[in-house]
Amino acid sequence: MQTRLIQHNISLKEYSNIKIGGEARFFLDFKNLAELKTGLAEWNELKKNDPSILDRIFVISGATNILFDDAGFDGLILRNSILYIKKTGDDLLKVGAGTTVEELNNYCIENSLSGTEWSGGLPGSVGGAVFGNAGAFGGETKDSIVEVISLNIETGQIIRRNNAECQFDYRNSIFKSEKLPEVILSATIGFKSGQISEISRKIEDHIDYRKLKQPLEYPNIGSIFKNIDIKLADKQLIEKVRDKIKNDPFPVIPVAYLISLAGLKGKKVGGAMISEKHPNMFINTGGAKASDIKELIEIVRTELAEKFGVKLETEIRQLDKGG
């Protein structure tokens, strides 16, 4: 069958925020529900005609926190490019999942809508933010979500979930923890009216802070590890870092500070390096491979476990080739 929407052997490096990754055997960039459904029908036909094709699907959008394998992905990548922002009530916006957080914030500034200022400078898409319940500066995606609409790619069913049904948790949601065969299509977000100047100031302040504190001049995939809930740390460590504990949105120990204490800032493996500006972010200094990033991850895990007795959990997602 001649496919119309699914592409073949597409470089994931070009879609990666850290500029790492091999080729996806199959790739579908969809801009609306109709294209997604048509592409999935093509995918089913491809599998039917060639039983050797691995039945693996992975969804991306901005790919700002995903580490693709050097060998690529032997399956179908679905790239969510559903881009729109619609007002559905006085203080409600329905936002396409592929819309960037930056585009949403710009719209909010122009229309005097307050509620997501904490996300100023946050990379990636609205769908990605919902998926991982992204957060910063004491705010989280879940704080403003009213409804999320998704498509079950196995049954074709459209599913609507309210905030509680999304089961949001720290950098988590039902979409992530349950590994549902679903694609997030849109999110309805609640706002309140505000002053343009104040909304803009808060967003710009957070953007400026990120530029100052984060290595945005290099390709990266954001924070590698989740910060550590103080409930999971022993008393000795808590005393050692007491003045560094922050609310995110509950008391946590910043992993970046522990990496710094361990003397790992600037550590390099191949073209990958632990940022000296923000040690919980690994950067591509040129020609870095996924294997370089993975090696740095294990070095940090081991060192922090030995020095501070902590067990680190990654915030990024790692996609292997499969097979």
Regions with pLDDT < 50 over 5+ consecutive residues?
none
Class from helix and strand fractions: alpha+beta
CATH architecture grouping of the largest domain: 2-Layer Sandwich
> What is the radius of gyration?
20 Å
Task: Describe the overall structure.
The protein is α+β, with helices and mostly antiparallel strands and 323 residues long. It folds into three domains: 7-80, 2-Layer Sandwich (Uridine Diphospho-n-acetylenolpyruvylglucosamine Reductase, domain 2), CATH 3.30.43.10; 85-199, Uridine Diphospho-n-acetylenolpyruvylglucosamine Reductase, domain 3, CATH 3.30.465.10; 218-319, Uridine Diphospho-n-acetylenolpyruvylglucosamine Reductase, domain 1, CATH 3.90.78.10. It is built from eight helices and 22 strands. It has helices at 33-49, 101-110, 126-131, 174-177, 196-213, 235-240, 255-261, 290-308; strands spanning 7-11, 23-30, 57-60, 66-68, 73-80, 85-89, 92-96, 113-114, 135-136, 139-140, 145-152, 158-162, 182-190, 192-193, 220-223, 228-229, 246-247, 251-253, 268-269, 272-274, 281-284, 317-319. The strands form seven sheets. The chain has a five-stranded antiparallel sheet. A four-stranded mixed sheet has the order 1-2-5-3, with helices on one face. Helix 2 runs antiparallel to helix 5 (196-213). The protein is globular and about 60 Å long.
